[in-house]
Structure formats: C-alpha cells, structure tokens
Amino acid sequence: MYRLRTVLNVHRRTYGILPAVCLRATHVVSRPRYQAAVLSVFLIVMLLWVVFAIDSMVLRSILLFTHHNSPAVCKEANLIREQFQERQNRINKEIEMQDQILSSQDYLTNEVRNKLHPITTLILEAGSRICPYHSNTLVGLLQVNEDESTIDADLANLESKFKNRVSVYNRESRYKRNSKNTDLENDDNQDSQLENQSTTHYGNFTQMQFSVSTVAPPIGVISPSNCHPHRRTAIVIPYRNRLQHLKVFLRHLHPFLQRQEIEYGIYVINLAGNGMFNRAKLLNIGFTEALRHYGKYDCIIFHDVDLFPEDDRNIYTCSSQPKHMSVAINLYDYILPYEEIFGGVTALTPDQFKLVNGYPNAYWGWGGEDDDMSKRIKSKCMSIFRISTEKARYVMVNHQHGNEKGNEIQVERFNLLKGSMNRQPYDGLSSLNYTVHHRLFGVLYNNITVTIGQHTMKSLTTTEKVLNLLIVLLCVFLIYLLFFK
C-alpha cells in the first residue's frame, strides 16, 4: 500500500491526478492475474448494453403479442364490436320497416306496424320519419373554399340560417300541441322512458337502447330539419390561436355535415395561455366535455382544424373498429404516409375510446400521440378501419408543423413510444386533469377554454443518453487497457 501511494504521488506531481490514476490502473490491469477479471467485466458490460439496446424490440414485441392474443383482452373488444353491430342491424331493420309503411303497401302495413319500436310509431304518426342510412342529398367530390375575403359574412349568414331553421323536434312538438294530449312536458318524459326501455319485444336485441329519439338535444347540437337522426357525432378540435383556419373549417364543415343528415356538435377545446401545447390531452378533454354536454353521442371524431374533407360520401360516423378518416391528404399526394398512422381525423365510439384509456397525456409538443394511439388500439385486440382513398380525401392548409411557439417537435416521442404499453393503464382518461375557464355553447360551435398545467415529466432521452455515454466510455477504456497496454 505504501509503494502504491508513493507511485501515485510521483505520477500526480508529474502528470496530474487523473492521468496518474489512469496510468496506475494500466499498470495494475496489465498483469496477467487481473486480465481475466477485466475481460469478464468487459463482457458483462457489453452484454448488458446489448440487452438494454434490444429490449424495446424483443421484449415489447413479446409482450404485445401475448397481450394482443389474450382471450381476456379480446373479450371486451369483441363485446363492444358485437353491440355496435347489433345497434346497426336494429336501426337498419327499423328503417326498412318504415320504408315499407311509407311505400303505401297496405297489405304489409298492419303486420309491419306491430313490429315497430314505439318511438318509430310516434315519429310516423307525427308525419316525420327516421333519417335514411344513406342520405340522398350527398353530392360527392367538393371544392374547398379557402377564400377568406367573405368568410365573416358567410359565417354570419350561416348563423342566421341556423337560428331561423325549424328542427325536426320543433315539428314534433307542434304535432303534439295540436293533438289531444297538450301536456308537452309529460310527453317528453314518456318519450324518454320509451327510449330507455329494453327492446326485448322488438326483436332479438335485448337490453339495448334505441338509437332514435324524440327529445330535442341541448343548445350547441345541430339536428336535421326533415328527419329524426339515428347517428349522433361530436367533432372535437384541439385549438389555440388558429382563428382563420377555424372560420374556414366551420364554413366548410357545416353544410358538409347537414347533407349527411346526422346530429352533430362541434367542440373547440381552446388552450389558454402560452404554455406547451398537448394535442392528446386536449382530445381527452374534448371527449369528456362533449359527453358531459350531451350524453347521447355514439361517435366522437377527433379533428385537426387545418383539414377539410373533399367528399361528403366520407360519412362522419363510427364503425365497429376505430376509424382513420383522413387517409388521403393533398400535401402527401393523396397517399397514406405509413401503415400505422392514426392521426389527422379519427373516429371512435365512446366504448372504444374508454377501452384504450383515451390518448396518452405524456406528449407535449408536436408529434407522437397518434402513433401511440395506434399501438393502444392494437394492444386491445382492435384494428384500424379505413375507407377508400376515393372518398377519404382531405385538403390541408399548407403550414409548417412543429414550428409554432409552444408546439415545437416532441423530441422525446420515440422514447415515449417505446414505453407505450407500460403507460397505457394509467396514462390517459384515468389520469386526466384540467381546469375549465368557461364553457360557451353556441350555434356554430361550442367553445371550451381550459388550462392543462405544465410539462413536468423528467426527460427520458437525456437520461438514456448519459447512461449510454458512460457505458461507451467505460468500454473504450477497458479495450484500451486490454489491447494497447
């Protein structure tokens, strides 16, 4: 020990403390009895490094395979899919019987009427009908008007039109007022009871809520004027400081949705302040607030404000599987960028969205949350449904993504994607927290202004880079000792 201390002191005075330690370590490990130990340490470190590098590719793939093919995981997804299909079959059958009655086939009328749901009977007696599954007012390919010179006047005319229009529920109320029973409040309560009753006696679809209603929705939800809708869609838009895009979007989308004869509401989730933007968290808030406002929505569409549909045959409703709607975008030459993409415009039923625990809240800045949602969908035994590129065409406003202040590119997104499955049970709807500053329900859209806190998650990227750097330096040092000294 005394000799080692003496040598270190000499080297320290000559070269400095760090070179002295390195030189002495070289003398020690250059002896044969230490070389086996150093080689063992080197091999262990290299093995740990290799395991650390491939765990995201191998281990997560194994977990994804076993999780995706687990009967327990698939059971709930299959149940949601079956219930969705049953509702669709039920309403299709109801519309088919309605059309038979309206076609004046007298010999079928009495037999068919006995099979109708009571709500359908009330609608037909009022001189109305259930909206057809395929609207005959669709025009197909559209021209997106991006001219901003007349945008304010166009929106004012559209708002005036909505205020003066008579919805199908107003027609229903007028029918009740002229009938023998003039107690409209009691009628509405009776209609609500009919909607919630079991359909055991109206087919093989038990304990299933009927899709058609005679009760008017709240302010902020727009209904067709000539038929009772059986599809109800909430459009959720994450938003901050994009007023001109929003105006063009509203002018284009309202006539588009009216031709599809669905009941819909547009929810603009406005992020207050200048903090970091979090699209995924705003979408979770939009989902929560939309159902809080109107609990009858059977489809939630998550929509970027800079995307405008070009074909009204792209129906804004959900499917038995999560639906990717913006398949073909002009800036990408109407080609799907990559197979796993699930961004832009997407549609999920409330049950599907709850099953995957919504979007992850961990993505601050631009990018990553849509690919994470794709992983979540597949991990819950579901698949992504896309319609043909002929109909799923969109125009995107040409602007630079990831360059806006507060919405810079998410540099951690690839590392977050690696841990997607691990975070899914606790990162999403179950961990959502936010503050609502105000809720304004209007004619053209519903404005919900919120704050969502600040980005406080520790950077995983920096930690991994430091660990990798330390491992590399250690390995280089050991190689130097073994082969060059």
TrEMBL record:
<dbReference type="InterPro" id="IPR029044">
    <property type="entry name" value="Nucleotide-diphossugar_trans"/>
</dbReference>
<feature type="compositionally biased region" description="Basic and acidic residues">
    <location>
        <begin position="173"/>
        <end position="183"/>
    </location>
</feature>
<keyword id="KW-0735">Signal-anchor</keyword>
<keyword id="KW-0812">Transmembrane</keyword>
<feature type="domain" description="Galactosyltransferase N-terminal">
    <location>
        <begin position="206"/>
        <end position="319"/>
    </location>
</feature>
<dbReference type="Pfam" id="PF02709">
    <property type="entry name" value="Glyco_transf_7C"/>
</dbReference>
<comment type="similarity">
    <text>Belongs to the glycosyltransferase 7 family.</text>
</comment>
<protein>
    <recommendedName>
        <fullName>Beta-1,4-galactosyltransferase</fullName>
        <ecNumber>2.4.1.-</ecNumber>
    </recommendedName>
</protein>
<keyword id="KW-0472">Membrane</keyword>
<dbReference type="InterPro" id="IPR003859">
    <property type="entry name" value="Galactosyl_T"/>
</dbReference>
<keyword id="KW-0808">Transferase</keyword>
<dbReference type="GO" id="GO:0005975">
    <property type="term" value="P:carbohydrate metabolic process"/>
</dbReference>
<comment type="pathway">
    <text>Protein modification; protein glycosylation.</text>
</comment>
<dbReference type="InterPro" id="IPR027995">
    <property type="entry name" value="Galactosyl_T_N"/>
</dbReference>
<feature type="region of interest" description="Disordered">
    <location>
        <begin position="173"/>
        <end position="196"/>
    </location>
</feature>
<keyword id="KW-1133">Transmembrane helix</keyword>
<keyword id="KW-0325">Glycoprotein</keyword>
<keyword id="KW-0328">Glycosyltransferase</keyword>
<feature type="domain" description="Galactosyltransferase C-terminal">
    <location>
        <begin position="323"/>
        <end position="400"/>
    </location>
</feature>
<feature type="transmembrane region" description="Helical">
    <location>
        <begin position="34"/>
        <end position="54"/>
    </location>
</feature>
<dbReference type="InterPro" id="IPR027791">
    <property type="entry name" value="Galactosyl_T_C"/>
</dbReference>
<feature type="transmembrane region" description="Helical">
    <location>
        <begin position="466"/>
        <end position="484"/>
    </location>
</feature>
<dbReference type="GO" id="GO:0005794">
    <property type="term" value="C:Golgi apparatus"/>
</dbReference>
<comment type="function">
    <text>Catalyses the transfer of galactose onto proteins or lipids.</text>
</comment>
<dbReference type="GO" id="GO:0016020">
    <property type="term" value="C:membrane"/>
</dbReference>
<dbReference type="Pfam" id="PF13733">
    <property type="entry name" value="Glyco_transf_7N"/>
</dbReference>
<dbReference type="GO" id="GO:0008378">
    <property type="term" value="F:galactosyltransferase activity"/>
</dbReference>
